[in-house]
Write a structure and sequence with these properties.
Strand content: 25-35%
Strand order of the largest sheet: 1-7-10-9-8
Distance between the termini: 40 Å
Order of helices and strands: HHEEHEEEHEEHEEEH
Radius of gyration: 18 Å
Number of strands: 10
Length: 218
Amino acid sequence: MAEPTNAAGAGAGAGAGPVALRTSPLAHLAERMRTAAVTGPRGVTLTEWPFHTMVNLRVDPASAAAVRIEKSLGAPLPRQCGHTTASGSHTVLWLGPDEWLVLSRADGVDGTTVVAALRAALGADPGSAVDVSANRTTLELSGPAARQVLEKGCPLDLHPRAFGPGHAVSTTVGPVAVLLWQVDGAPTYRLFPRSSFADYLARWLIDAMSEYRGPALG
């Protein structure tokens, strides 16, 4: 679940820690994203889900360490481009032949906890587990028109025959590099841009959504 942000430093308690004080990359656009929502048969919504735990994992998939890591995660490491696996609070997205992004949404579990568990499973074998949670934010685009919005600026074939629930690949939307994951058939997509490019991408998507407020032409 997304955690609430707190941008009002003056209102925070003197003893507030960094988690209570942090502000998401798109907190300043939250209201614009809400008002950009379109309802009805051409509906589409855009929401930020900030502060998800993300860990970059590198390991030889044929190694004993990979087996231990899979046991720790409770899910197999996906072996093919575009594939994902999931178990409980963890989702694993394929990034390369020996690279994955581990997403975790468990309450009270941060990147430090996940990294520690993965490093323990890795042991002395070659590989790495690095907390990259602050590197990206998460945008969720959902609704009947979500695919059409993305098709305005994404070079992928997003038709269900080629890209469906459970698929995740690195691509671009507009000029912004993202990791794109289709979560379900609504369709719901999650986009993971670098935090420094999130503002541009959110504004691009808001503009692309505006067309669907009117009736379909033709």
